[in-house]
């Protein structure tokens, strides 16, 4: 499979006048085309810093991040992101929130609207394009955020704990819907990188789980998940895999 994103021995150290703090020691992994990869690790291990580096918002102290075979500086249009809180602009309706991601890329307003509406339909919220965020449930807000992320046709869609703010039932429904999108042969985000604290979620959704250590973080293990899809989250094999991930994390 083609390499879409490579995190190449990245480290991050914050230097002050009389001290320094190293948050990331050595993180090294590859995301390949059409993979679903999850990053999991303890709180404070530098996952948020890693997200900022992948998005091109923070430069690593050492190492590099490659998109295909390119290293780019500054904000990265090859990656789109869905945050935990949806990050919608409250003064914009659903359509305008999705279109906003396209403004730097497409000058033709009618074309932007066409693409935005296609993605609004794709995530199942057509009919709500003129609604404002305050009128939407948490799950619907996340659908808007996913539509916005898909609209730019990114090489990688980055998910930053996207379902942690939802109730149990809404979160599970969103996981299943996102997996349906990802597995669709017609319309899909191709490659997904998800940051999560939820081991069950990572096992349910991922081809590979990248397990990080405590700060300063490094990769403990890249664990392939070979359970057959769609995954039965109540099966013995699923529970054994979750237990194995937890065991590796606790070592």
Task: Describe, in plain words, how this protein is organized in 3D.
The protein has about 250 residues and is of the alpha/beta class. The protein has a domain at about 5-80 and about 190-250: Rossmann fold. Helix content is about 30%, strand content about 25%. The chain contains 7 helices and 10 strands. It has helices at about 45-55, 95-100, 110-120, 140-150, 170-185, 200-205, 235-250, and strands at about 5-15, 20-30, 35-40, 60-65, 70, 80, 155-160, 190-195, 210, 215-225. The chain has a 10-stranded mixed sheet, sandwiched between helices. Strand 9 and strand 10 (about 215-225) form a beta hairpin. The relative contact order is 0.18.
């Amino acid at each position: 499979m083609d390499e879409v994103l490579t995190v190449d021995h990245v480290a991050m150290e914050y230097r002050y006048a009389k001290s320094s703090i190293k948050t990331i020691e050595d993180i090294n992994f590859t995301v390949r085309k059409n993979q679903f990869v999850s990053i999991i690790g303890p709180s404070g291990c530098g996952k948020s810093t890693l997200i900022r580096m992948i998005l091109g918002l923070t430069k690593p102290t050492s190492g590099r991040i490659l998109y295909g075979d390119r290293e780019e500086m500054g904000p990265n249009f090859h990656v789109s992101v869905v945050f935990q809180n949806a990050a919608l602009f409250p003064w914009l309706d659903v359509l305008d929130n999705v279109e906003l991601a396209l403004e730097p890329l497409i000058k033709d307003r009618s074309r932007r609207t066409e693409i935005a509406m296609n993605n609004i339909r794709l995530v199942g919220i057509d009919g709500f394009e003129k609604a404002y965020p305050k009128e939407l449930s948490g799950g619907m807000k996340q659908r808007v955020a996913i539509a916005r992320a898909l609209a730019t046709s990114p090489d990688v869609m980055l998910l930053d704990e996207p379902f942690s703010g939802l109730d149990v039932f809404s979160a599970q429904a969103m996981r299943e819907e996102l997996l349906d999108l990802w597995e669709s042969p017609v319309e899909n985000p191709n490659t997904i990188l998800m940051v999560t604290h939820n081991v069950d979620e990572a096992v349910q959704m991922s081809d590979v789980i990248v397990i990080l250590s405590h700060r300063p973080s490094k990769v403990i293990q890249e664990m392939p998940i070979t359970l057959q899809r769609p995954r039965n989250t109540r099966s013995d094999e699923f529970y054994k895999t979750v237990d194995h991930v937890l065991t590796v994390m606790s070592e």
